[in-house]
């Protein structure tokens, strides 16, 4: 594939845009629920997340039709502009109902933009180097994830949440200009016309796709519960201040930055994905379960435990991405869309399961439950047919 524009190559361009995209999305992640609690009762916040997840799933089912109509480039450009507008709206509008609408719209748009980026990256990938390309792509995003918690802590002064959302919008604007200027000649693959039910059947009939979807669900289930309940546990039960939590979360996220690109190359050149998936789930289960047994207010202890949870998660994430995209190509927009519905599906199921469990168990016990769930990933990984 030749360069689409003088200067940056297409893949390097999407890596840079992905950095701006992820940074803008990651900065509000740990403050969203607190912000919403200033608008409505905490009892109803979960319903907003559930509604956003359901709308996201519906949008992912419909997006292949839009791609065939106007193409990935113009679709993504539209979504980026709308996302920036939604964030500005959250920062400047005073009406709670309108802010919630903007929040839901932003939640949906973030997933749709990520989906579009997936197709663009896959369009420039060769199967033999999929692991390396996906690893670098994830790494470009993970640099942003590491920076975001500390940056959010600096922005959130005296409860002025508008600063966080306005900053998120401003950060994404360079990404918009880079994307619009460098990828206007992206050549769309043939997006196959496949109905959702048929796509679901196709995924179910393939043993490997069925198991990798299950693994992906477990990973997103883990992320959903950890993002919601880890800050609550550390802040309200262990007693960490938000100024301490920002650095802890940045340390926690370092494995995504440090490990995913090297592990992608290992999957391409040395090992298959199966072995690394199994190891990742074992590490996730042990480290997540450890949260139940420690309550001492120790920065180093909790930073280390959370760091290890993400060592396992990083292994599972890059191997899941690598395995899935070795089984599909850029034209399989329906299958890619189905794969991306896993995250919002976990976003619906995770809080509902946790809410039900917390009626009977303590918050620390929830981490033991989540640890047990991660053990389910081990037989699923063993059942995969390695690509090596």
UniProtKB/TrEMBL annotation:
| Bilayer-spanning residue ranges | 12-31, 43-63, 70-90, 96-115, 136-156, 162-179, 211-233, 245-264, 276-294, 300-320, 341-361, 367-384
Q: Which residues form the Major facilitator superfamily (MFS) profile domain?
A: 1-388
- What's a single GO MF annotation on this record? transmembrane transporter activity
Q: Which InterPro entries match?
A: MFS, MFS_dom, MFS_trans_sf, MFS_Transporters
Q: Where in the cell is it found?
A: Cell membrane
Which Pfam family is one of those matched by this entry? MFS_1
Per the annotation, which location comes first and is thus the protein's main one?
A: membrane
Keywords linked to the UniProt accession: Cell membrane, Membrane, Transmembrane, Transmembrane helix, Transport
- The reply on keyword Disulfide bond is no
Entry keyword annotation includes Transcription: no
This protein is called what? Major facilitator superfamily (MFS) profile domain-containing protein
What species does this protein belong to? Candidatus Taylorbacteria bacterium RIFCSPHIGHO2_01_FULL_51_15
């Amino acid at each position: 594939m030749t360069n689409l524009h003088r200067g940056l190559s297409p893949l390097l361009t999407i890596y840079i845009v992905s950095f701006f995209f992820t940074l803008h999305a990651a900065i509000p992640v740990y403050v969203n629920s607190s912000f919403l609690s200033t608008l409505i009762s905490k009892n109803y916040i979960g319903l907003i997340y559930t509604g956003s997840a359901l709308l996201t799933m519906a949008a992912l089912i419909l997006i292949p039709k839009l791609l065939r109509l106007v193409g990935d480039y113009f679709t993504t450009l539209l979504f980026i502009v709308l996302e920036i507008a939604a964030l500005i709206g959250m920062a400047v509008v005073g009406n709670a109902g309108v802010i919630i609408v903007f929040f839901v719209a932003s939640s949906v748009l973030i997933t749709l933009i990520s989906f579009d980026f997936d197709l663009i990256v896959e369009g420039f990938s060769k199967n033999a180097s999929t692991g390396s390309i996906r690893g670098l792509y994830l790494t470009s995003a993970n640099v942003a994830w590491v920076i975001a918690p500390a940056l959010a802590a600096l922005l959130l002064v005296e409860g002025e949440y508008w600063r966080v959302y306005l900053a998120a919008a401003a950060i994404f604007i360079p990404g918009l200009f880079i994307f619009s200027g460098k990828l206007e000649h992206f050549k769309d693959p043939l997006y196959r016309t496949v109905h959702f039910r048929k796509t679901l059947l196709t995924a179910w009939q393939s043993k490997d796709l069925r198991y990798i979807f299950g693994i992906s669900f477990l990973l997103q289930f883990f992320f959903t519960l950890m993002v919601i309940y880890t800050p609550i546990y550390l802040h309200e039960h262990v007693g960490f201040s938000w100024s301490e939590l920002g650095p802890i979360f940045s340390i926690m996220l370092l494995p995504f930055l440090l490990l995913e690109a090297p592990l992608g190359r290992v999957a391409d050149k040395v090992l298959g994905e199966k072995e690394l998936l199994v190891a990742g789930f074992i590490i996730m289960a042990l480290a997540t379960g450890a949260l139940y047994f420690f309550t001492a207010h120790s920065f180093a202890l909790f930073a280390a435990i959370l760091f290890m949870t993400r060592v396992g998660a990083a292994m599972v994430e890059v191997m899941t991405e690598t395995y899935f995209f070795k089984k599909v190509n850029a034209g399989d927009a329906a299958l890619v869309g189905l794969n991306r519905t896993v995250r919002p599906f976990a976003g619906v199921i995770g809080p509902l399961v946790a809410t039900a469990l917390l009626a009977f168990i303590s918050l620390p016990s929830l981490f033991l439950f989540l640890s047990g769930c991660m053990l389910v990933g081990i037989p699923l990984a063993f059942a995969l047919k390695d690509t090596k």
